[in-house]
Amino acid sequence: MQNSSDLRVRKTHRAITNAFYALLREQSFETISVRQLASRAEIGQSTFYNHYQDKYALACALIEETTEQLTALFLNRCPINLVVSSCQENPDLLPHAKLLSNINTAEASFQQIAIQHITCLFQRDLSRRGIKLTCSLAVSQHLAVLTYSFISQLINDQALTNLPVQVNEFNQVLATLGLPGPATTTKTINHQL
């Protein structure tokens, strides 16, 4: 892998990423080739391979990055106004997440990668809190599936019309379970509407 602080590397990553999303808007992931990605990014195929092993590695990296951003909105105790403003400040986040959510192959699956990532977050949080469970992995996976369902709904409701209600209800469920969630109250949400 290349030094990610190098300006040339960042520009190449950005070009590859932009090419990938542009191609995903036009065709299915399965039909995208590295040749097409390199051509659209205006780089050589060898340059692409200097950065990613293949298109699946690129997809996995973008899914992990997007999942990280989306889960931060739900699990880092963000007030609802920060959740909405984050989506407004990064207007490509939800459209890109929607494109990525259509990727479902054995090598790269949005749902599988997202749930694995969120499971790890819950496992770390349970461990950090000193909560010892016999089936901590299973509990973390169930919580991850619940979180993923909210994230999936957010991706599909890009108008953000129900976001305050969804985040508040998600917060209530996690608070009832004694787990972290968005630091939002009904009073805060009502001020945002």
Protein model, in words:
The protein has 193 residues and is an all-alpha fold. The chain is globular and about 50 Å long.
Give the topology, please:
Blueprint: H1 7-26, H2 34-41, H3 45-51, H4 55-75, H5 80-89, H6 93-101, H7 110-128, H8 136-156, H9 163-177, H10 186-192
In summary, what is this structure?
The protein has 193 residues and is an all-alpha fold.
Uncertain residue segments: 181-193
Give the strand tally: 0
The gyration radius over C-alpha positions equals 18 Å
From the N-terminal CA to the C-terminal CA, the straight-line distance is 45 Å
Would you tell me the structural class of the helices and strands?
mainly alpha
Number of helices: 10
Q: Report on the biggest sheet.
A: none
Q: What is the general shape?
A: globular
The protein's oligomeric status is single chain
Q: Classify the helix fraction into a percent range.
A: over 70%
The percentage of residues in β strands lies in under 5%
Please give a handful of descriptors for the protein shown.
single chain; 193 residues; mainly alpha; 10 helices; 0% strand; globular; disordered C terminus
